[in-house]
Amino acid sequence: MRFLNRSAGRLSRHRRGRFAGLAVLLVALLVTGGAYAALAPAGQAEQSQDNAELVEQGRELFLVGCSTCHGQNGEGVLDVNGNQLGPSLQGVGGAAVDFQVGTGRMPMVQPGQQNPRKSVAYSDDETAALAAFVQSLAPGPDVPDESDYDPSSIYELPEDERDAAINRGQQIFLTNCTACHNFNGRGGAMPRGGYAPTLRGVSDKHIYEAMLTGPSQMDVFSDGNIPPENKREVIAFLETLQEQPQQGGFSLGGLGPVGEGLYVWVVGIGGLVGFAVWIAAHTTRTKKGKETA
């Protein structure tokens, strides 16, 4: 009987211990959940509400200024002949909108081969709202944070590490960008009437977004192809490139051998031909003067 009582007591204590552990776990979950409910959702709900208001503001701006070409839901529009009037924006992401609108390329003045950079039509807040609306249509590259594109952290490195990072940016640029933007980033002609715009005077943010989204004829360099840290190194190289003096004197716009060859033909050879014509005309007038005398 005593054996049975001791066995029952051990079983009872075992059960109480197991139930006590469950009770402690439940209390811990309740406390954690209560703290989360008291602190986190308020900020998240406020942030979600702010984002919803920003998306709604962007939708109103989009319906007025963009829907004629891109459709009310960014699905794209075809003209009466079935030609693409405005491409679909579903999936392009907010970064593409921030680049196109932030550089004044959109809205377009008139359809053309390529949208030139011009004065912006929307404020920074309106651009952010349009980007938020397009981002809500479908997943795509979002507007980058300043930490993604700001190369200031590279300049704070020790000199050897800083130079190595800028050299990596130079190699990436020479490998992927010089065929279109020229070796010094001043741009150049492209097939079928297009052109690669100059990178001089372009903000770090817009250079990063251009690499991320591939506007117009440009290739897309996603974070899988060129990670953010390498994109910052490219931006750092372009900044140092703009600060370099023109050691060779007049650069002829930095357009390379085509521009230099055109200069030689028009100015150099053209000047020689003009000088030869002048000599011939002067010699003729001298002979006529002598004959008259």
UniProtKB/TrEMBL annotation:
Enzyme class of the recorded protein, top EC level: translocase
Gene Ontology, cellular component aspect: plasma membrane
EC number(s) on file: 7.1.1.8
Subcellular location: Cell membrane
Endpoints of the signal sequence: 1-37
Reactions accelerated catalytically: a quinol + 2 Fe(III)-[cytochrome c](out) = a quinone + 2 Fe(II)-[cytochrome c](out) + 2 H(+)(out)
Domain Cytochrome c: 53-138, 164-242
Binding site for heme c 2: C177, C180, H181
One Pfam family hit: Cytochrome_CBB3
Transmembrane parts of this sequence: 262-281
Molecular function, one GO term: quinol-cytochrome-c reductase activity
PTM note: Binds 2 heme c groups covalently per subunit.
Gene3D superfamilies: Cytochrome c-like domain
Annotated binding of heme c 1, by residue: C66, C69, H70
Keywords carried by this UniProt record: Cell membrane, Electron transport, Heme, Iron, Membrane, Metal-binding, Repeat, Respiratory chain, Signal, Translocase, Transmembrane, Transmembrane helix, Transport
Principal location class: membrane
SUPFAM superfamilies: Cytochrome c
Membrane topology: Multi-pass membrane protein
Subunit structure: The cytochrome bc1 complex is composed of a cytochrome b (QcrB), the Rieske iron-sulfur protein (QcrA) and a diheme cytochrome c (QcrC) subunit.
Descriptive protein name: Cytochrome bc1 complex cytochrome c subunit
